[in-house]
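User: My notes are a mess, but here's the protein and magnesium ion's SMILES. Can you give me a structure?
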Amino acid sequence: MFSLFKKFKDGLTKTVAAIAAKTHGLFGGRKIDAASLDELEEALYTADFGVETTTEILEEIKTTHRKDPSLQGRQAAEIGAAVLQRVLAGAEGRLETAGAGFPRDGSGHKAPPAEKKPTVIAMIGVNGSGKTTTTAKLAHKIKADGQSVIVAACDTFRAAAVEQLKSWATRLGLEIVAGHTGADAAAVAFDAWQAAKSRGHDWLIVDTAGRLHTKSNLMDELAKIRRVLQKNDPAAPQHRWLVVDGSLGSNSIEQARVFHRSFGLTGLIVTKLDGTSRGGAIVGIYRQLKIPIYFIGLGEQPDDLQPFSVENYSRAVFGLE
Ligand SMILES: Nc1nc2c(ncn2[C@@H]2O[C@H](COP(=O)(O)OP(=O)(O)OP(=O)(O)O)[C@@H](O)[C@H]2O)c(=O)[nH]1
Ligand SMILES: [Mg+2]
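Assistant: No problem, the inputs look usable. Here's the predicted complex:
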């Protein structure tokens, strides 16, 4: 548990440091007063927590401060973390990847039931948001949890995109199905599903090409991938995740709404939180969309993809343990 918290803390260093600098180390030991409250408000805005959340945090601290004028910065940080936990209640998506995969038969051998089908995760989003990297990291995690997975390279737009996922697959020992450049993305997804089914795999992760939510032909391609997967399994893709670049802050909200309307999102992944001092944006994104956040990206290494934890996030941004 401690090391998981440390991952959050290290990954959010830029945001935490920016707040600490703007508030002159308020949470480290200063007393709350009018000046430090102003600094805190400014710091929370700058970190992209948004008007609503910043106001709620400030109001609660002020209310407590009126009752207890000796309120210390550290106590204020506890109040802030509690507000965040309340605002983010329900924001944790949970993927059940742990465990042995198939139930075992009496002999101790794996016994895949005949009707077993892969659960499909489709990664979608604008260019460069982190879909391919996240596909590889997540497949790695699923394998580490003892389940089987195939990744499908359905970004057939660019040769480099297929190569990128192939090189991750080689590095992490992942099974991959890839089409050639220019191939029909939906056909690659279909073949990958068939491969996952015939090999009795638990999961299929479909990496798609980056697209602007404003380009209707590209949005149609996503709908086609979904339709074609549904020929194999009407429930597929069970997970439709938007991968959002966390360093772009609250700008992602409108984009997410459009993807949601045309594709029915079931989850979010927020990447690159390690690269930004505006890590508060995740709160506004959840407040506006109310779509669960399954994972966050805290760096470029395979284990830098972490299940989103409201408690770890809320305490880390306020510099608490
Ligand atoms: N620091 C950091 N970098 C990340 C994270 N996630 C992805 N990246 C980097 O972001 C860049 C883009 O990632 P990709 O996975 O290629 O993004 P994509 O969405 O597949 O991009 P397109 O296929 O071009 O739309 C790469 O350099 C990744 O290493 C993260 O959590 N932290
Ligand atoms: Mg990609």
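Residues 131-132, 155, 161, 210 surround magnesium ion (ligand 2) (CB under 6 Å).
User: Great, I'll file this with my notes.
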